What we know:
Helix content is about 45%, strand content about 15%. It is of the alpha/beta class and about 375 residues long. It folds into 2 domains: about 5-175 and about 365-380, 3-Layer(aba) Sandwich (Rossmann fold); about 180-360, Rossmann fold, CATH 3.40.50. Bound molecules: uridine-5'-diphosphate and alpha-D-glucopyranose.
Amino acid sequence: xxxxxxxxxxxxxxxxxxxxxxxxxxxxxxxxxxxxxxxxxxxxxxxxxxxxxxxxxxxxxxxxxxxxxxxxxxxxxxxxxxxxxxxxxxxxxxxxxxxxxxxxxxxxxxxxxxxxxxxxxxxxxxxxxxxxxxxxxxxxxxxxxxxxxxxxxxxxxxxxxxxxxxxxxxxxxxxxxxxxxxxxxxxxxxxxxxxxxxxxxxxxxxxxxxxxxxxxxxxxxxxxxxxxxxxxxxxxxxxxxxxxxxxxxxxxxxxxxxxxxxxxxxxxxxxxxxxxxxxxxxxxxxxxxxxxxxxxxxxxxxxxxxxxxxxxxxxxxxxxxxxxxxxxxxxxxxxxxxxxxxxxxxxxxxxxxxxxxxxxxxxxxxxxxxxxxxxxxxxx
Length: 380
Ligand code: UDP
Ligand code: GLC
């Protein structure tokens, strides 16, 4: 088994970290994850018996969506982390960076320790989310030092190439999922709906961190046009300091008088059970989603899913065959799709069944981890 030093900057559990947990588990006998801070991600690694190294005793304050240089403000901290990665990496076959800022530091470290470098790219590298400087730094380092870039979708791969990344370095491997973690559970559905007091409601679930581009405000706007028996569950929290947006959502809900029809559940570790409590899952990102784990999770949960038609989401869903695709940011299209699904009995929907089969066929954790294993072997 290859010895991999994974590096990830986040303390919380975002999609990139959840994806890494499922990959790193296969390597836990020989490998470890280097972290910049303690937190939920660190705890999850511990629970799964995946070894980890804290790379600094003074956690760097990193916001995923903030500017690169702002985040990498303390030069001394960065030198310390890079030095630690250099030292550690000598005991491993390769360095595998899972997030952008971790990649920048890992690239320098891996060049010094002469270890092969992998970049698992979870973001669409465009100016919509990142500054020109940020993009330039990441692409230059990738082209200079990185033997393999794993993109989480064709959209992510194309954006990497469009930003100047070398096409021969980048390969697409979709996120993999353990299908057995998303069983149909009518009893759990009943218990949860009872507990949440939504028994007689048509429930729209949105399972995303709270962030402007995840588009929860679009769903709330849509709710103003939906019948009184529709309730929205917002599952997730602001992971990267988007507190203003959360406040804005609360104001929007209060102003529309929707307080009793929107439930903020915060960050939850029982997503599969909560999906059972929903009648439809809405993915509402207003800009291109690089992959969109929640979409596949909804497919595996036998729940109808509405996703916005941009980025990786269009690779996951075929409109009206395995789900519903709507234009990002368009309230009316979302409302129409929800109303249409409300008229259907979801358990008998062939769309839901096709979606489930598609998810099983294309997003198996075993197959997709094997693809990564093969790419790593070729690199070494
Ligand atoms: N998630 C979770 N608890 C929550 C909200 C979301 O565990 O309260 C999970 C969700 O099931 C999914 C991931 O967080 O696996 C989010 O990944 P996605 O790719 O959808 O979006 P990201 O936030 O990574 O951009
Ligand atoms: C990132 C992306 C998300 C993707 C996840 C896992 O967080 O924003 O779209 O699903 O990584 O690859």
